[in-house]
Amino acid sequence: MVFALAAAWLQPINIVKATGRADGANQIIASSRSSFVIRPDGSLWGWGLNNRGQLGDGTSTDKHVPVHIMDDVIAIDSSQSSTKAITSDNTLWIWGFHAYEQPLEEGIIDQFVPTRLLDDVVAVASSNFTIMAIRTDGSLWSAGSNAGGMLGTYGDSRTHFEKVMDDVAAVTVGAMHVLVIKTDGSLWAWGSNSFGQLGDGTTTDRSEPVHIMDDVSVISANTNNSAAVTTDNVLWVWGNDTMYALPSVDIEAIEPVPLEIHAGYITSVLLGGDVIYAFYDRPGYIFHRSFIMFTLEDGSLLSWGSNKYGQLGNGSGVSFDSLEKIKDDVISVAGSERTVLAITDDGNLWAWGYNENGAVGDNSTINRPMPVSIMDANISNDAPQVPDLESIDEENGYTYDLYQDDLEEDDLHEYPEHEYNENDNDYEEPSEGINQTVLMVAGVVVIVILSIAILILAYSLIKQRR
Fold this sequence. Notes:
Blueprint: E1 18-20, E2 28-30, E3 34-38, E4 44-48, E5 63-70, E6 73-78, E7 82-87, E8 92-98, E9 109-118, E10 121-126, E11 130-135, E12 140-144, E13 158-165, E14 168-173, E15 177-182, E16 187-191, E17 206-213, E18 216-221, E19 225-230, E20 235-239, H1 242-245, E21 253-258, E22 266-278, E23 286-296, E24 301-305, E25 319-327, E26 330-335, E27 339-344, E28 349-353, E29 368-375, E30 390-391, H2 436-465
Parallel strand pairs: 9-30
Antiparallel strand pairs: 1-22, 2-3, 3-4, 4-5, 6-7, 7-8, 8-9, 10-11, 11-12, 12-13, 14-15, 15-16, 16-17, 18-19, 19-20, 20-21, 22-23, 23-24, 24-25, 26-27, 27-28, 28-29
């Protein structure tokens, strides 16, 4: 088994996160338009969109094939424009775009090479503006935006890490909500809950962890959906788009609903999802273009849902309700709302789906509706010089929150009302001013107008003299 997961939990996504479990020591991940793989020797490779330095190769140039980023990596996570990695010494590194809510420094920056952020970290999950880190003692820490309460603590957004809870085994992040598996197998959730994506039977946002269910082994989340696989290998789904995951469910499920198909044989799950849109035959309902994939005990990879970019990997058009087998012998799968990666037990890395920025990695920008072989066990490790890594000031300001003890199921709190705002996580980038192209076009327009005015004036004068 040449490729496998870097930790017990696979943590791919923007907005899209997937978690799967497998034996081994390597990991794949696809964010919104970039992809990454950790090879067996610990080297990290990336490709795809790089406009904000999210590949970490020291440039802002898109890469259409895998390029070497850094070594000694054990885990990787990527959101739409930034990337986080953990090295073998349990150091958390970060690079790409950072807004003021990211815990690196105030201000807006693009970091083009990995920068040291936090020590004693074993797992990380993030959205565009929030980071969750599991430390070596099993404690979970958060920093960044607190929109929807997704930091797991009351209060404002913050640029320093604070402790959320103890005994955490796995974490994954949606757009504005968080799922956590504790070491006892219990599932906890918090953050935005407008579509029931927390699974607590309500649509009330939660600023602290709430107990959802027990005996959970795998979790996954996309924008407003959640999924879990329990220890008996049954898949459960809830949130906005459950009508596509469960044909018998017409609207949102606000608590976990079991999937009867292949119950007892499912080993991992990947949720993907695209932009919000109005479903044509259900006025008043808003859905995401979601898709779902899962693996079975025999290595079969199955998928259904939205297929706009070929992300189902079945070579066909849109298919919302047909379950199809994509590949055999799959040991791990990761993806975003558009692009999917998978590793088979022969060590080959496969990719398919959206490819405009080269996220598939096949040296093209053509969407791929079927799996394409990208990298195999015998690939050469020749690569460009690894960029120098930067370390920021050790004084990150992360501190223990003495009021955040380990939460028990019956230790409930009164939650303040929070009006969900879909723009809470929007970020308007600063204007870069009028560029040279605009000035040139404006100049040409002015010259043309002046020329016409002069011709009209000359014609009038000539006509008067006659």
